[in-house]
Amino acid sequence: MEPLKNTLDALMLGLSHKKTGCLDAGPEQWLKKALTKKELQHIKVKYFSKGVLSLNVDSSVWLYILSLKKEELLKILQKEAPAVKNINLRIGEM
After folding, report:
1. What is the phi/psi pair of residue 44, to 5°?
2. Looking at the domain that runs over 4-91, which CATH code has it been given?
3. From CA 40, how far away is CA 28, in angstroms rounded?
4. What phi and psi values does residue 47 have, to the nearest 5 degrees?
């Protein structure tokens, strides 16, 4: 008999994939395809809800750099997951 935790984890994973409109990846995987390793070290996914991907950035310098790339990043992410409508960048905990 399969433990209840495994069943619930599989169910939640399935529901989250249906909600985001992407069956094979989550926000972390989308970002790996869109950003360099150096950029990835300075950001953390806060949440993805209602088409908005919210990212925490570790400093004002990286906030500025990623803000300059925001439109390009959004286009790349929309190719991976059409459900992404906007990106919010904020300085926050890593």
Report:
1. -145, 135
2. 3.30.300
3. 9
4. -165, 165
